[in-house]
Design a protein that fits this description.
Helix content is 27%, strand content 20%. With 299 residues, the chain is of the alpha/beta class. The strands form 3 sheets. The protein has a 7-stranded mixed β-sheet with strand order 1-2-3-4-5-6-7, with helices on one face.
């Protein structure tokens, strides 16, 4: 994968990225959020705001400055991780906008007996949209129309937003130029992620504006590379098991040996996501349901 890590966040500043589209980046950098979460203000007269971000008073003030007294009709939330959705309610109180999202937070599958969701602390479990967006539903404003597309994988309720008639798609955490999206069971699902990726590959969007980092300027070529990357990772995991690795720590140590150790926990969850998919395909076996501490064998 040819990732693009060039990005200037310009915290507190509304950066024009397309006609009638402004980007504002929250100052919440981390190994998982890159330089921070991107919010987008869409429109000229009546506005929509996409992914208001975490509860952050400085970012709220920056968003209200960018709004500059104009009406905000809709707040669109791509998914309910705490770096994307919590500010929505306070922003709605300030603007009177309707909060729209696929739905409340939920895991991609039921938890197994004794299983703990390691990402539970990053989930905005209190979030509830005013309006649940149907797949393909179009929200219209003054001079703009935004289509919601359900893209589960990174999160069960993940959606992306296409700005109709422009070739612009706000890809949130599904496709980002700087890194691959984290897919961590039970919060996310690799099989769902790949299906959603194939769905976006059928479209003809010309640019993606993601939830973190800069634009994906050749989205179809990038997504083909991303799909190949995921399939290569799947084959590498299958090969490690064929060669004798039996648990996730052994696989992570081999495949992610050049990765920042701070990310090895996330890498283990990504391996689990692939193993869930491989078990589902009948290529790998384990006793009981696939879990982070299971013993895995070739089928």
């Amino acid at each position: 994968m040819d990732f693009d890590t060039r990005f200037e966040p310009r915290y507190g500043e509304a950066v024009p990225v397309a006609e009638d589209v402004l980007r504002l980046t929250v100052q919440n950098p981390s190994a998982f959020t890159f330089h921070g979460t991107n919010s987008y203000v869409v429109g000229r007269e009546t506005l929509a705001i996409i992914d208001p971000g975490p509860e952050d008073e400085m970012h709220l003030a920056a968003l209200m400055k960018a709004v500059d007294g104009r009406p905000v009709s809709h707040i669109l939330v791509s998914h309910t991780h705490k770096d994307h959705s919590p500010l929505a309610r306070k922003l709605a109180q300030e603007t009177g906008a309707i909060i729209c999202a696929e739905g409340p937070h939920r895991p991609a599958r039921p938890l197994h007996v004794g299983e703990v969701n390691p990402l539970q602390e990053s989930a905005d479990v209190d979030f509830m949209p005013d309006h649940a967006l149907g797949d393909g539903e179009v929200i219209e404003g003054d001079g703009w129309a935004i289509r919601a597309l359900h893209t589960p994988g990174h999160a069960a309720n993940h959606a992306v937003f296409a700005l109709e008639g422009t070739g612009i798609l706000f890809s949130a955490d599904h496709v980002m130029a700087w890194a691959t999206s984290i897919v961590a069971p039970p919060d996310g699902s690799m099989s769902d992620f790949m299906t959603s990726l194939d769905r976006l590959l059928e479209r003809e969007d010309r640019v993606f504006f993601p939830g973190h980092g800069g634009a994906v300027t050749r989205p179809r070529a990038f997504m083909r590379g991303l799909r190949t990357h995921r399939r290569m990772r799947e084959r590498a995991i299958l090969q490690r098991i064929t060669d004798g690795d039996r648990n996730i720590p052994e696989i992570v140590a081999a495949i992610y040996r050049d990765t920042d150790p701070r990310l090895h926990g996330a890498a283990a969850l990504s391996v689990l996501a692939h193993l869930e998919d491989l078990v589902g395909k009948g290529l790998v076996t384990c006793e009981g349901e696939p879990a982070i501490d299971s013993i895995y064998l070739p089928a």
